[in-house]
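re: that chain from earlier
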Amino acid sequence: MNVVNTLNEEATLLMLALDNLPPHLHAEHFGEQGNDQARPFHDVEVALRTAETTFHFDAEVKRIHRKESLLPLLNYARPNTLLICNTLSPFLADFCSKNGLNFIDEAGNARVTVPGLNLWIEGKRLSGSISTTSSHRGKPGVGFMKLLFILLAQENAKDLPFRELAKLANVSLGMVSKGFQYLASEKVVATQHNTRRILNKEALYHLWMEYYRTALRPKLGGIRLDVSANWQQIPLSNGDCWGGEVAADELTHYLQPYDLQLFTFEPLQKKIALIKAKPSQTGRLWLVPAFWGKELEITPKTKALLAVAELLASNDGRNIEVAGQINEHYLHLGRFYPR
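^ sequence. v structure.
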């Protein structure tokens, strides 16, 4: 396997491992993924954020098939290091635990012990997303949905270099490659001589509306806040973007929002202090970390995508009616149907 293929496969391992963690854990990676063989745990930096604290790790992204593959890592393993890998056998998972080697695998299984965090997840199998080990066309996963959002939100996105797409979508380079492979297998996009053509734009929209609720929404994370103020009175930071009912009202002036969804790039604790609201499981404001890159321009079409997906996910009759209005004015789909 050449270096490019190896990097793409490892990038996909990283994407799957972080995306398949439980929703209450917000995981991010930073820096360009490399292939530094000189010293382990220098591939990429990974941050795991709980409601209270953010934990930073130096990560090694590597496929593991036998104990011998783990041995070179043991001398470098520390509480702040992390192995990102394919799904481990119970024997290899136990071997990691006994030797103080933190790991997260592509299915979301994890054993991570660091002061303030003891993460132990086991028994999960890789399914429901694009796999690194199978040519089976599974259902789209979180990384794919982030890429799909950019392809729909920005008109020229399909023509951008993979590196720019990865930055806009906040995904790995490997996920961009896997995403286009999936779209080609579904005969939605064609790639030839370094050019990409969208063969069925409506199919892209329907993928977004169909899988937002099941693939992306449960992984958005964030926190519910108890607010009594009108949504116009909630202070916004640079880059904040309304979704759901508020985005729908901004576009149509037809809906009086009650359930509020606000995407932000601000650290959640800082944003909560700015809003001066208390966390509540039944709170009407859902404060959500923005899942796209900061460079994305927020346009009416962007808001239409966020609004329609969330309105349809609510299964509320009036919301679905407003989603249809947004389609007529902004998306122009000939076949628009609620889930």
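Residues 3-121 form one domain.
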